[in-house]
Amino acid sequence: MQNTPLNAADFEAIEDTLLQYGDDHSVLNPCELDGYFTALVSGPAQVDIAEWFPGIWGGENPAWETPEQCRQFIDLCVRHINTLAEQLTNAPQAFKARFEQTEHQGQDLLLAEEWCFGYLRGVAVGNWPEMPAPQVRTLQLIIDCAEQDNFELPADLNLDQHRQQVAAIEPAARALHAYWAAQR
């Protein structure tokens, strides 16, 4: 069960839990959580659950209604982390970030801001050290996307430029994982 990829119902349970217990300092949705976990499994060292779990909640664990609810959430998180680690290690080209989808001016559009914000949270919790310039530039692609405000897309959004920026995120995540994996 610890290595079974999550299904739609699992992600819905994660989202419900994040909404129930989250606040302005916590991970807010499954997309952000996916970015967070991607950075955690990609970094220079394994991060213990005692560090990454409170990081979901902004440093403070929630006051769970029941121990079972906490166990279920942890199980879903561990399954997803294991899936990401397995995928990035053994089939990196199959890695797909969990981006949000929206419609803008009648066209489908992927939004990567929250995923990237979660990734940067994972970089911070993983305490990544300085990297060489090529890896810094790669991480900058994620940083730049995290700094966008996609809550209200501007009417004059350059769709081609936006799509190119989002398309660069998954290769950047793969490259950073490969860099740190070679250092371990």
Automatic annotation (TrEMBL):
InterPro entries: YgfB-like, YgfB-like_sf. It comes from the Bacteria. NCBIfam families: PRK10396.1 (NF007704), ygfB_yecA (TIGR02292). This is YecA family protein. It comes from Pseudomonas saponiphila.
